[in-house]
Amino acid sequence: MKEMLVPSEESTIDDFELKLNESAKGFLKEAAKWAYFLSILGYIGISFIVLAAIFAGTLFSFMSNMSREMGNMMSMGGSFITALYLIIATLYFFPIYYLNRFASNLRFAFRNNDSEKLAKSFGYLKSHYKFIGVLAVIMLCFYALIFAGVIIAAITVGLR
Asked: Residue 116 falls within a domain, yes or no?
């Protein structure tokens, strides 16, 4: 009968300490600069989306005042567009925030040789990619539902 190997209480993997060489540090420093730059662009993009939400609502309200027949429908459309844009801006905020926190903490960690800030920065990077991944899965499901709806609509129209 074969003996079963029982892992020791503390494995050698737990004792492993990762050290960054100079080229890895350089790559991370450059990644932090680009992440910070992209997060600033993201915040600017979010502000444009919020401005578009405000102006779309205002534009639709103005157009509803000009056209009495379509007044209520136009104002409801303006409210819908405003709400939709604000939801998009809110969804866009979180990955940009996580990217900004990653870059800021990583820059601080290298400047002050702080391992805890380095670990925290990677936590924010994980959160960034996790949010993007979950959002991508939700969008793929949404597209699949739309695709299925179009096929069902085409079949029902074709049967008439």
From this structure: yes
